[in-house]
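Priority: low. Protein: Palmitoyltransferase. Input follows.
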Amino acid sequence: MDASPSTESQDPLLGSSRFSDDSDLEGESDLDMFGFSDVLPGVEDLDAWEALLPLSRLPPLPDRNPKFWTQAFAGACVVLGFCITFVVSARNVRGDPAHWSNPTWCTAVDSVMTCLALLALFCTSFIIFGRQGEICRSKTTCYPIPAQVAKGLLAGQRPAQNRNISGPEHHPMLGSYCVRCLVWRPRDVDSHLSHHCRICQRCFVEFDHHCGVFGRCIVEGNMPCFATNIALLVLAILAMFLTNGWCGELPDELYE
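Result:
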């Protein structure tokens, strides 16, 4: 538990609670969130929660960090630029067909580069628009609402709680409650981490890292596309070396 000073309070709606003065939202407070009074539904009564606090009544999700848009735009431009450069260069670097040392490769390189470019564009689009791993608001992710948060929402206020909230011990889905997204994140198991990204301003499951090139969080769901893009860049560079060596225009004296 956080060693910072805390003050205890008792409220008939909240139950017993302890509020930490630490403003680091990535820390978690060991709050007894489920000492509910008769005013609030039980932990498993999701229908009653939805009737009490419909999803439409929840505050809007946090605004995206501007880098969410600028990084994605820059990343898309970089990938598109590489695709055009490699496709055009592979076509222009080829010399006289009579001097090709590997006619099969020199004939097929246009198609190879085009396929690599299309695959890179697909992977980039999937990373940027796929929303993989993002925890969206729904009945199962938003409810039950911790009592401290529910009190503020019932009063028409945004949550004043400044720390993420730990769920019931050993509950597989109610690991920690994000007070910014107002969603439950599953408990961390091995490498399957849940995290709130400060740039995307959303919570993600199976989080690995936020990519500053594509402006998106890389999670288990889009990691294959992320790794494929890196591999495609290496393959495109290798293909250019092969094309230049097998199909490039050499000095005239070498043909004599």
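Residues 66-132+220-248 form one domain. The chain has two domains: 6-61+142-185, 66-132+220-248.
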